[in-house]
């Protein structure tokens, strides 16, 4: 069972690497774009925490994503010195392509397993979050 899970993790890493290369962004930038899409906007500090990167690394990454037209910085109304990151249409297109690829893949797998995949993945996510909480304590 562990080897099957490890295989899924490795295969996912390969797919993320290929999708990010196709989009012309680093894997961490793709993950940041997905985070920003999930939240509607994110601060660079939130992106750094999510990706486990330093603020300097995130600043450089955001500079590159801004120059590529993927995100925009907006003033943060809660922090005069901070900014909010929002997707631009080009960034939204990258995330839509990423999500569509996963949707197609998961739909195909689900069809071969009698529609139980959503329940299985939900249960797995819940267990992973519970284990992460237990590991902190």
Automatic annotation (TrEMBL):
It comes from the Bacteria. SUPFAM superfamilies: Winged helix' DNA-binding domain (SSF46785). GO terms for molecular function: DNA-binding transcription factor activity. Transmembrane segments: none annotated. InterPro entries: HTH_MarR-typ (IPR000835), MarR/SlyA-like (IPR039422), WH-like_DNA-bd_sf (IPR036388), WH_DNA-bd_sf (IPR036390). Pfam families: MarR_2. This is HTH marR-type domain-containing protein.
């Amino acid at each position: 069972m562990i080897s099957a899970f490890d295989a899924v993790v490795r295969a996912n890493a390969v797919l993320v690497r290929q999708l990010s290369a196709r989009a012309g962004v680093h894997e961490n930038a793709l993950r940041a774009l997905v985070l920003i899409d999930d939240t509607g906007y994110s601060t660079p500090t939130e992106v750094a925490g999510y990706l486990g990167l330093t603020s300097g690394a995130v600043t450089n990454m955001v500079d590159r994503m801004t120059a590529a037209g993927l995100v925009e910085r907006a003033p943060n109304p809660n922090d005069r010195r901070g900014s909010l990151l929002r997707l631009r249409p080009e960034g939204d297109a990258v995330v839509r392509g990423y999500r569509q690829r996963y949707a197609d893949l998961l739909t195909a797998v689900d069809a071969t397993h009698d529609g139980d995949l959503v329940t299985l993945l939900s249960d797995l996510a819940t267990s992973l979050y519970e284990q992460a909480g237990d590991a902190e304590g």
